[in-house]
């Protein structure tokens, strides 16, 4: 469900009473490139600071980033505290406009909270950024379980996953870890207690289509999955979005079933 602007403002005001609160708008999410155009945009629009890959960088000191590495960039729209709490509404509105319905709040302890007029949980009130297809792949760092690295299992001996000082990229190290895991005795491994073998992170596992999660769906046989997709009852906008997708998905699932996969 969507959070209302009033609810977001109330949340910001409560946080600002506890200490300084930075209000950010996301501009780039996990995209490769130099991103110098983002810095030029920020400068033209009067912004002083960017939040680049977890670090605050003055716009005037921005240097082009590594071209073939994924980067995330937010612009700092403003800062509020208990003395400037009246600015909460204007800052939240501007941040949400720039972030296309999503903003991020960073408090004095560097804790990050996402607020969104587009996606939030109606039960707990937690907001989420726009869903990304990569979120549903355990082969991507965006979707992989943080505990097991997307393997679905954990081992008594650690695997070399991620960046280290050996000069290899993250992908190269992950491939090396996968090859290494194939040689480990099954008795040395156990199902990951975090993802329970689904290999996906908590956000991916909690996205539902008519009460079914992606790990529920992938646990089905190809035949059962095709029937499940074919029987989806969609309405209005859902039909528009899925009308061309469903026949393609069903066709591929039936092919998998016919060849015995």
Write structural notes for this entry.
The relative contact order is 0.10. This protein folds into three domains: 5-116, Ribulose 1,5 Bisphosphate Carboxylase/Oxygenase (2-Layer Sandwich), CATH 3.30.190; 133-219, no CATH class; 220-261, no CATH class. The protein has helices at 5-16, 36-44, 88-98, 170-181, 202-205, 214-218, 222-230, 237-242, 245-258; strands at residues 21-31, 49-52, 55-58, 71-80, 102-106, 112-116, 153-155, 189-191, 208-209, 212-213. It contains nine helices and ten strands. It has 261 residues and is an alpha+beta fold. A hairpin with a 2-residue loop joins strand 9 and strand 10. The chain is globular, with a radius of gyration of 22 Å. Helix 1 (5-16) crosses helix 3 (88-98) and helix 7 runs antiparallel to helix 9 (245-258). The model has no long low-confidence stretch (mean pLDDT 87). 31% of the residues lie in helices and 19% in strands. The longest helix is centred in the C-terminal third of the chain and has 14 residues, at 245-258. The strands form three sheets. Strands 3-2-4-1-5-6 form a six-stranded antiparallel sheet. Strands 7-8 form a two-stranded antiparallel sheet. A two-stranded antiparallel ribbon has the order 9-10.
């Amino acid at each position: 469900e969507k959070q209302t602007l009033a609810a977001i403002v109330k949340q910001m005001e409560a946080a600002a009473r506890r200490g300084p609160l930075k209000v950010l708008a996301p501009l780039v999410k996990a995209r490769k490139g130099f991103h110098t155009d983002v810095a030029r945009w920020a400068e033209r629009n009067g912004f002083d600071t960017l939040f680049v890959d977890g670090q605050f960088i003055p716009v005037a000191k921005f240097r082009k980033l590594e071209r073939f590495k994924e980067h995330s960039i937010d612009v700092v729209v403003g800062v509020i505290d208990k003395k400037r709490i009246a600015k909460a509404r204007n800052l939240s509105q501007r941040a949400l406009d720039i972030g296309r319905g999503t903003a991020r709040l960073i408090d004095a302890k560097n804790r990050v909270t996402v607020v969104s007029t587009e996606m939030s949980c109606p039960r707990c009130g937690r907001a989420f950024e726009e869903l990304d297809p990569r979120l549903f792949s355990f082969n991507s760092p965006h979707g992989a379980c943080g505990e097991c690295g997307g393997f679905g299992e954990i081992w008594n001996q650690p695997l070399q996953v991620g960046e280290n000082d050996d000069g290899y990229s993250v992908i190269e190290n992950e491939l090396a870890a996968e090859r290494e895991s194939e040689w480990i005795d099954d008795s040395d491994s156990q199902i990951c207690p975090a993802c329970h073998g689904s290999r996906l992170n908590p956000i991916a596992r909690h996205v539902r289509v008519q009460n079914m999660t992606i790990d529920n769906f992938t646990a089905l046989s190809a035949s059962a999955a095709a029937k499940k997709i074919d029987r989806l009852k969609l309405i209005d906008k859902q039909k528009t979005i899925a009308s061309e997708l469903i026949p393609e998905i069903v066709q591929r699932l039936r092919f998998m079933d016919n060849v015995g996969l």
